[in-house]
Amino acid sequence: MRRRRGSAADDDAAVIEGSWREPERFAVLFDRHAPYIYRYLARRAGRQVADDLVAETFLAAFAKRDRYDLGHADARPWLYGIATNLVGQHRRDEARQYRIRQAAAAEPEVPGHADRVAADVTAQAMRTLLDAALAALSAGDRDVLLLIAWEQLTYQEVSRALAIPVGTVQSRLHRARTKVRQVLAGTDAAAAYEEITTNE
Amino acid sequence: MNEMELLRELAQETPLPAPAELEAARARLVAAITTDPATYATAVAEVTTSQPYPPAGQSAGPLRPPAPAAVLTAARFMHGGAISSAAYLIAALPFADDVKGSVLSYHLAATPLIITLVILAGLAVIGLWLWMARATSQGKNWARVLSTVLFGLATLELLSALELIGKNGIAQALTAALTWLSGLAAVWLLWRPASSAFFKSARAARSRPPSQIPGP
Q: CATH number of the domain at A91-200, please?
């Protein structure tokens, strides 16, 4: 488990409820979740943009904290939902991020042991393919796929985050996975990567 | 290794940020927190309990926390309700005798007295809207309860107004519906959690006896 789950007295809902009367308590939520939200934003839109977006995410959350449903002890889906909406307003930055990663992957690292170099080159080729596949997905499909694959949210949590039914989450995920699989399938890099990871 | 595992592996290349990288974002949040009205309310409450004497020129009465956005918006809706009530009154005047007749189950002639009474009743309703807007903005919980009760009565009035659509024209029904919607929005906002917190803290500020203020 990557994050501590609080007791009822100090769970996210209690912190948010407390912040209605004592707003400074909201900073606890920042300290608890900001690193993960930042990393999610950095992966999607780049570190420079993430600096701004993480602040905007928590400012937006703070501004609408009185509308938070206290029935949900964990505020992560709510925060990821806000962050994802903000990424939606920075699609160009996100697209650029994928291009940067593809360009970086095209330049192999420093030479070393022959097998290791081959593995690195193959892994980078896989990353290039993955980034291309992600860039080709529709925004809605990509949101679902990345919240599940990267942030390990459950279907229900993604449903809350994006305000869509669980069935839609499942269908979007299925569609996104199929598309990514199609991009990866049958490529030399994928076969080589499969072989290398199997041998490791 | 499937595509989900590949994605996770890709994600692991992005490390968690160092605390310093989040300082600017945290500072922006803290700045927003310090300018929040509820923070001001807390600070005022602390000052009230820590100052031995009120500053010169100020009464020793309790300091009221500023109303949150939900309550202020509710007050705006109430002002809107007052305006639409005035419009309703104007729309209803030509049918003053019918209105009374429908309520009292017998027909009354549109005498000057009846018209005056209808106008006075309409003005009283407008006055109620404005009074409730003012009292709720001041954090008076009884006003919130009374507003809710009045909204219930307005619902009944809306039902009776709807019966008159065909008879008295659409204008009267529309203004009645607008008035009702203003009431609905105001009541909903008045019972939001942030509003409840405001009414609670306002009551606490009012009920704090002077003896609780520490002496020198």
A: 1.10.10.10
The tens digit of pLDDT for each residue in B67-112 reads: 778 888 899 999 998 898 888 788 777 665 554 445 444 555 567 7
Q: Which residues of A touch B29 (CB under 8 A)?
A: 26-27, 30, 55, 58-59, 62
Q: Where are the alpha helices (DSSP H) in chain A?
A: 12-21, 26-45, 47-63, 76-88, 91-105, 114-136, 139-149, 155-162, 166-184, 188-199
Contact B126, B85 (CB under 8 A): yes
**What is the residue type of B160?**
S
Judged on CB neighbours under 10 Å (0-12, 13-18, 19+), B211 is exposed
- Chain B: closest CA distance from residue A114 (Å): 22
> What is the ipTM for the molecules in this complex?
0.77
Here the tokens at position A27 are: 């900073």
Tell me the C-alpha distance between A126 and B10, whole Å. 9
C-alpha dist (Å) from residue B66 to B36, B152, B193, B198, B214: 10, 28, 15, 8, 24
Q: Domain A7-89 classified CATH 3.90.226.10?
A: no
